[in-house]
Amino acid sequence: MKIVVIGGTGLIGSKTVERLRKKGHEVIAASPNSGVNTITGEGLAEALAGTQVVIDLANSPSFEDKAVLEFFETSGRNLAAAEAKAGVHHHVALSIVGTERLPDSGYMRAKMAQERLIKASGIPYTIVHSTQFFEFLGGIAQSAVVGDVIRLPAVSFQPIASDDVADVMADVALAPPLNGTIDIAGPERERFNEFVARFLKGTKDPRKVVADPHAKYFGTELEDGSLVPAGKARIGAIRFEEWLPRASLQRH
Description:
Layout (H helix, E strand, L loop, with lengths): L1 E5 L4 H12 L3 E5 L13 H5 L4 E4 L8 H22 L3 E7 L9 H15 L4 E6 L6 H7 L1 E2 L2 E4 L3 E2 L4 H13 L5 E6 L4 E2 H11 L5 E4 L22 E2 L4 H12 L1
Helix pairs in contact: 1-6, 3-4
């Protein structure tokens, strides 16, 4: 099968490409650097010729409200048009658990706009809603610094390893379209502030994490269930304590 992975050189994309190639599929890791640009449309028709499955893992280079909405709407429209012309059988997209529950976040509104375009395209699809990745815990901590402490809400949090996400994306790409969504999450649910504190301790970062119910995430305040699956979810296999030593080795 020929599969095109949009954003195929990123964190999840590169791992998904590797998994699918190992299974014997023809996989194109598409990105602007490889001459495939979903914003301008450059290279899309050529890349999608003869393609059965497209996996969309592209992300906006800007998180500013207007820019991120324009990115996902433009990319989504261009992809849908190119896929229709190429006769693509299955569109797979990675989105975020809780998008519909966080309308005050410009980024989440943009992801919802992306999902609406996918559903309206007429192309069979599967949308994977994932919780946050372990790999982004450091960035979350940095973005939450206020003065000399890190302020985060004590809401439920269930992050997942990127390897588990890539496993799911590869599995979904090879399965029939659901014309619906699935949720995926990590194996441990804990308070957001406590999980980030574990990450800092594990990386020997001395900064203190303070629980703050008004601390914002992607520009919005959170309720307890905002960041975790509301119902049934596929649960990743890699626990945080297993992941942390591997991540440290990769960093060094």
